[in-house]
Design a protein that fits this description.
Blueprint: H1 2-19, H2 28-59, H3 62-66
Helix pairs in contact: 1-2
Length: 69
């Protein structure tokens, strides 16, 4: 979340600066929900990945890991 809080203002500034050269641009108010949605989706994917791996490891038998089964 800290990385998103740092990256969003930088991304918005750089994207708006880049979009100034095009004749058709999108409004800043349109861009903010898109960035929030993308950050939320990436956070959800990270939580599912970490949670799935943690559940798999928690269910595993530690003796099997020690015996290299």
């Amino acid at each position: 979340m800290l990385a998103n809080l740092i990256a969003w203002p930088v991304a918005i500034y750089l994207m708006l600066d880049w979009l100034q050269q095009f004749p058709y641009r999108i409004d800043t108010l349109t861009l903010v929900p898109i960035l929030i949605g993308a950050g939320s989706i990436s956070l959800l994917i990270a939580w599912i990945t970490v949670g799935g791996n943690a559940a798999r490891v928690a269910k595993a038998n530690p003796i099997g890991a020690l015996r290299h089964e």
